[in-house]
Specification:
By secondary structure, the protein is α+β, with helices and mostly antiparallel strands. 40% of the residues lie in helices and 18% in strands. It has helices spanning 39-50, 71-75, 89-92, 146-157, 165-172, 184-196, 204-223, 229-249, 258-266, 288-299, 315-322, 347-358, 373-381, 384-397, 412-423, 433-443, 461-480, 504-509, and strands at 7-20, 27-34, 58-62, 67-69, 82-83, 99-104, 110-129, 131-136, 275-277, 305-306, 362-365, 368-371, 430-432, 483-488, 497-502, 510-512. Strands 5-4-3-6-7-1-2-8 form an eight-stranded mixed beta sheet. The protein has a three-stranded antiparallel beta sheet with strand order 10-12-11. The protein is globular, with a radius of gyration of 25 Å. The two termini are 39 Å apart.
Length: 514
C-alpha cells in the first residue's frame, strides 16, 4: 500500500475544514495539509482523522461535478469517474473553487464538505507537516446505516430501558459510546503513525496490534533501510498483516475436546453441549437470505411458480427477489437489475431458491415450485425465524458448498467453517478473510491434501485453499447473514480483499457452550 510522506516539500499550505454533512452536533475536523497533496493521499488522511476504517469506496466531487476515486472503483463500473491518483489537491481546491465534496461508503452515503479556509504561502519549497488542528465529536461507527441509522443508535444507547439497547450495545462492541468524544492528541499521534509506518494503521485491529509490537516494526525498518520506498512499504505492510495473523493464530489452541470437535463438525444441530441455536435472533432485516426467501414464498403462495424449461424461476420473480437483496450484500455483485438471463446470474436468488427446496420449505411438482405445508405455515404465521433455522440447517447439512466454485474435492470447508465462526466469536474481531483462512489451516492442516495436483501448476495448494475458503464464506455465510464483511481497498493488490466479522445475527443465533 502506498505510504504518504510524513512531511512534504511544498510552496503552500492549505487550512481545510471537513464536516460530516447532516451530523448534529456537527462532526468536523480542521487540517493543515500541503497544497500539492494528491487526492488519494488526502483520502487516507481524512479516513484516519475522521475515524473511519477505509472499508468502502469513496469519491471526491468538485463544484463542477467532476468525480475522482481510486482505480479499483473505476474498474468496478464507475467509468464516468477519474483516477484520483497523483491529482494535486490544488487542482480541485483553490481560490476560485473553495469547496469540495467527499463521499464515503456509497451505501451508508456519508457526505463530507471540504472547505478551503486559508492558503498559507511558504518562502520557496519548505518541509510542510500534516496536522489535525482541531475537531469535535466522534465519527459514527462503520455500517451503522447512514445518518438516520446513527441517530437511531444514539437514541437507543441513551436509553437503557430501550428494547434494542442490548442488541445495539453488543453490535457496537463497547460498553459505552460517547458521540461527543474527540481527542486531538490521540488523533495526531495516529495520523503521524500512519504517515510514518503504513496506511494500514487506519484499521483499528491493525493499529491496536501495532501498539503492542512497535519495537519489532522499528527493528524491521532498520534492516531494510537500503531498499527503495516501494519495497520498504511492501515489507512493512506484510509484517503488520503477519502480526495480526499471529495474534489470531495464538488462539488456535481451542478449549474443545476431540469428541466435542467431532460433534461440532459433523452433528452441529444435535450437539447442545457444544452449540445451541436461537432462531429468534433472525429477522427480515438482518438476514439477506431470509428477506429473499420471503419474496419467493409470497410469489408461490397462491398457485405456485411455473418454472422455466431449465427449472429456473421466471425472470419476473427473479427480479422481484433481486429487489430484496440489501446493499450490504456486495460480494460478487454485478448489475443485478440489468442484463440478467436467469436466476443463475444472481447467486443470492439462485442459492436461496435451492435452499428453500432442500430444506423442505418448497417443492417442485410437474414443473411448478410450490410451498410445502411447513413453508405455508411459516408464511401465514410470519414466523420467519423458523424459516431461517431451516434454511441454515440445509446450508450446513445438505447444500454442496462446492456448487459455488470448481473444487468439489474441498468438501470439508463446509464443516470446518464452524471453527471460523467460533474464532470470530470474541471481542468483535474483524480480520481479513485470507488471514482467517490461514488461521484455520493451522487447526486443520490436512485440508491442503485435498487439493488436486492439476490445480497447482501456477499456484500453491495453500493459496488455492485460502482463496476457496474465503470465497465460500463471503458467498454463503454472507448470504445467510452470519457474518458481515467489508471490502479492503488496497491499490497495490490486483485482487479484491475483504475483512470479515461475526454479525449481530451470528452473535445472537449461535450459542457457544465451550
Amino acid at each position: 500500500m502506498k505510504k504518504i510522506q510524513a512531511t512534504f516539500l511544498s510552496r503552500q499550505l492549505y487550512q481545510i475544514h471537513i464536516e460530516l454533512e447532516e451530523s448534529s452536533p456537527s462532526v468536523w475536523r480542521k487540517l493543515l495539509v500541503p497544497s500539492n497533496l494528491s487526492l488519494d493521499q488526502l483520502h487516507l488522511i481524512i479516513q484516519v482523522t475522521m475515524g473511519w476504517q477505509n472499508c468502502h469506496y469513496h469519491v471526491f466531487q468538485t463544484q463542477e461535478k467532476c468525480c475522482f476515486s481510486d482505480p479499483e472503483a473505476l474498474e468496478d463500473g464507475m467509468d464516468s469517474w477519474f483516477d484520483e491518483t497523483d491529482v494535486p489537491l490544488s487542482d480541485v481546491l483553490h481560490g476560485k473553487s473553495k469547496y469540495l465534496s467527499y463521499d464515503y461508503d456509497l451505501g451508508d452515503a456519508w457526505s463530507h464538505r471540504i472547505t478551503l479556509e486559508k492558503m498559507l504561502p511558504l518562502i520557496g519549497q519548505q518541509s510542510a507537516d500534516i496536522l489535525c488542528l482541531n475537531g469535535e465529536n466522534a465519527c459514527p461507527p462503520e455500517d451503522v446505516g447512514g445518518i438516520e441509522g446513527y441517530k437511531n443508535l444514539i437514541t437507543v444507547l441513551e436509553d437503557r430501558s430501550h428494547p434494542d439497547f442490548e442488541e445495539m450495545r453488543d453490535w457496537i462492541g463497547f460498553d459505552h459510546f460517547d458521540p461527543s468524544y474527540f481527542n486531538l492528541a490521540a488523533t495526531n499521534t495516529r495520523l503521524q503513525m500512519m504517515l510514518t509506518y503504513s496506511p494500514l494503521l487506519i484499521h483499528d485491529e491493525i493499529y491496536d496490534n501495532f501498539h503492542s509490537n512497535q519495537s519489532e516494526v522499528d527493528a524491521l525498518i532498520s534492516t531494510i533501510s537500503k531498499k527503495d520506498n516501494v519495497q520498504q512499504q511492501a515489507i512493512i505492510d506484510q509484517f503488520l498483516m503477519d502480526m495480526l495473523e499471529d495474534d489470531l493464530s495464538a488462539s488456535g489452541e481451542l478449549p474443545i475436546s476431540p469428541d466435542q470437535l467431532h460433534q461440532l463438525l459433523y452433528h452441529p444441530f444435535d450437539a447442545p453441549e457444544v452449540i445451541t441455536f436461537d432462531p429468534s435472533a433472525a429477522t427480515l432485516k438482518n438476514s439477506p437470505m431470509l428477506a429473499i426467501f420471503r419474496v419467493l414464498a409470497e410469489a408461490a403462495q397462491q398457485k405456485g411458480i411455473k418454472l422455466t424449461s431449465r427449472e429456473n424461476l421466471p425472470l419476473k420473480v427473479t427480479r422481484q427477489m433481486i429487489f430484496a437483496i440489501p446493499s450490504c450484500l456486495s460480494y460478487g455483485q454485478s448489475d443485478w437489475n440489468k442484463n440478467i438471463r436467469s436466476e443463475e446470474d444472481v447467486y443470492p436468488v439462485h442459492i436461496t431458491r435451492i435452499l428453500a427446496t432442500i430444506s423442505g420449505l418448497c417443492r417442485v411438482q410437474k414443473g411448478t415450485l410450490l410451498l410445502t405445508a411447513k413453508g405455508r405455515k411459516i408464511l401465514e404465521s410470519e414466523q420467519w425465524e423458523l424459516a431461517f433455522h431451516e434454511l441454515v440447517k440445509a446450508l450446513f447439512t445438505e447444500f454442496n458448498w462446492a456448487y459455488v466454485d470448481s473444487f468439489p474435492e474441498l468438501g470439508m470447508i463446509r464443516a470446518t467453517s464452524w471453527m471460523t465462526l467460533f474464532l470470530l466469536r470474541d471481542n468483535d474481531l474483524e480480520i481479513p478473510s485470507d488471514i482467517a483462512a490461514e488461521s484455520l489451516l493451522t487447526i486443520f492442516p490436512a485440508l491442503i491434501d485435498d487439493i488436486p495436483e492439476e490445480e497447482l501448476l501456477y499456484t500453491s495448494a495453500e493459496m488455492v485453499l485460502i482463496h476457496t475458503m474465503s470465497h465460500r464464506w463471503l458467498t454463503l455465510l454472507g448470504l445467510c447473514g452470519l457474518i458481515d464483511y467489508s471490502k479492503i481497498h488496497n491499490p497495490q493488490s490486483s485482487k479484491s480483499e475483504y475483512s470479515i466479522r461475526l454479525s449481530q445475527l451470528g452473535k445472537g443465533y449461535l450459542g457457544w457452550k465451550i
